[in-house]
Amino acid sequence: MDLSEIKAAARKAAFGRRKGAFEAVGPGQSAHLSEVLAGYRGVPLAGYMPIRTEISPLPAMAEAAAHGPVGVPVIQGNAMPLEFSRWEPDAPLRDGPFGARVPLEDIYFEPEILIVPLVAFDAQGGRLGYGGGFYDRTLERLRARRATLAIGFAFDAQEAEELPLEATDQPLDMIVTDTRIIELN
Question: How confident is the model at residue 48 (pLDDT cuts 50, 70, 90)?
């Protein structure tokens, strides 16, 4: 089995675990995410608009938006880094690629904190995404410019013992789940 097949199998198993968690608790709790973000009031950050069975960061993003800029990712094209458009609670949205909603009007900015969606994570800060490499390219670009905090947000059930990772996979700095905060160094 080559690495792409191993990753596909890991994704399939992780999607099953995530679906089970979503069915058990709904879009999840963001209390721990709010707690973490409270320590960074006013720092530009980007979250995401949850799709399918992703845990929802929206309540924590709404709280953070009262203190500073909050954005969501806008896909620019295949194999390109993400750009982040300013998001406000209740602002008008339009359909973006892959079913994620994006602001009706794009006002781009560079976040210093990214709340990163994921399919699976491990205790060392490894992350398995959807396979497009968007967040890996984006984190690499942002980290080349300044310190950028990558916070993985997931259900506990998405944790894996070990993930098939590549040299281009960007690590998470912290993982916040529906039940805990995992700080990494």
Answer: very high
Tokens of residue 101, six digits: 């909603």
Phi, psi of 161 (to 5 degrees): -60, -45
Specify the fold of 3-183: Rossmann fold (3.40.50)
The pTM (predicted TM-score) of the whole model is: 0.94
CA distance 105 to 131: 27
Quote the pLDDT of residue 27: 82
CB proximity list for 175: less than 8 A, separation 6 or greater:
121, 125, 151, 152, 153, 154, 181, 182, 184
Q: What is the pLDDT of residues 58-83, one digit of tens each?
A: 999 999 999 999 999 999 988 899 99
Query: Where exactly are the structural domains of the chain?
Result: 3-183
CB proximity list for 70: less than 8 A, separation 6 or greater: 44, 45, 46, 47, 61, 64, 86, 87, 88
Look at strands 93-95 and 113-116 and give their pairing: unpaired
The strands making up 45-46's β-sheet, listed across from edge to edge, are 108-109, 83-86, 70-74, 45-46, 113-116, 149-154, 174-177, 181-183
What confidence tier does 84 reach under pLDDT thresholds 50, 70, 90? very high
